[in-house]
Amino acid sequence: MTAMADVTKATTRIxxxxxxxxxxxxxxxxxxxxxxxxxxxxxxxYCSCCRNQTVFVAYDSWLRDHYLCTRCGSVPRQRHLQSVLxxxxxxxxxxxxxxxSPSNDFIARLCSxxxxxxxxxxVPRGAxxxxxxxxxxxxxxxxxxxxxxxxxxxxxxxxxxxxxAIREIHRVLKPGGAHVFTAxxxxxxxxxxxxxxxGADGVVDHLLPEEYHGNPIxxxxxxxxxxxxxxFEQLMSEWAGAxxxxxxxxxxxxxxxxxxxEVFVIRKPHTTVVPTRWEPPRGRRAALGQLRPAxxxxxxxxxxxxRPNRSAD
Length: 313
Hints:
Rossmann fold; 6 helices; 23% strand; disordered N terminus; single chain; 24% helix; alpha/beta
């Protein structure tokens, strides 16, 4: 309230200045009122992030980033990911969940065994900075098969080597576990392209003009290293060595409406039992024991064929 009051006083003083400036003084320009933002979309519905009935509103046609829940501020991809968790993973809030580079606590507030990490270039992997774990998705410090659900939201477009990241995430998943994630794709881009690469000397080589997205830590800038196209799912499947499920959904009643709002799931198969190789019976008696049932079956079949058909009597 104090800050608002101070702003109001300052504005009042400016508005009360004389219209004609004194000699040598530049008269202030009259403030031009800004046009009120125009709503592109507004509707009531249920938000999977804050678990509330709410109103969804957008003031920009790019709904992926601007179709907001007025209660919690979530955007469509966040709501869609939690909808997929709710519908595809029964009891997921009680599983071992790790989230890489979260920008909110929507998932953390629901889970009983949740951890998260950020990428700190100057902090050793597995160490902590201000209570936050430092991890690199290309070289995770977690033990093999230790996590049920690994979540990344718009992270893979900022990784220099996403193939390594996908394999590392798959490594730390328990059998039956899953990597649940989002990533933006580009309209009209058939083949994904690398935008930047990291040299052996640690210097970034920009193959395309630099582009940045928001970052929950540091200077709020995350370099975009990959543009993903329509081959995204194929790439992910090849890198993981497992099938990729792409969930598509448009449901404004749940605030789900945006371009490239897919949620992707890669499940780690359960451990399979390799069947023992069949060995033929050894010895004459063992062989006869195997043959007798088959010979008996053949004999009974011949008797049935030879028996007269009495149905016509």
